[in-house]
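In this section we walk through a basic example: taking a raw amino acid sequence and producing a predicted 3D structure, encoded as discrete structure tokens. The instruction is simple. Fold the sequence below.
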Amino acid sequence: MRRKIPESTLPKLNRSQMITPEGLEKLREEHDHLWRVERPDVTAKVAWAASLGDRSENADYHYNKKRLREIDKRLRYLRKCIDDFKVINYHPNQEGKVMFGAWVEIKNEEKGLQKRFRIVGYEELIGNKNYISMDSPMAKALLDKTVGDEAIVKTKMGDFVWKILKIEYQN
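The resulting token sequence is shown next.
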């Protein structure tokens, strides 16, 4: 038997509640797809499997009931996100500085590495390999810096110096 751990004992994640307009639109699209396409399909499968009789050995019934619970859990989460996130729109005052939503190109001279990524909210990271979280050590070190500035990123493996080569915004 599994014992439920009280939420008050779980560590709190300090994630920013910011999202880009594009990120919010993707969440809305996912919510609509789950609600209008996947959920009705899975509900129909559950009803069909239940109509076959004995549910104790009905794999279709058990699998689709589990999938329905997963969909409902994700829908609740998405509704909360859509309501709670603060959409950060581009503003001309951001030009020239690394801020939320920026595409940043950086270089580490010592390691000979060059990277380009966008600073976004944590919910936007899934499926976007060129995005980093606003809450990451790299993003925190780069915030408010300008082209030519150096940022020191402190990690468990040591401190790394990155020079900012380029800052761009989608508008």
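Looking at the output, two observations stand out. Residues 1-12 have pLDDT under 50 and may be disordered. Helices lie at 21-51, 59-84, 137-142. In the next section we compare this with other chains.
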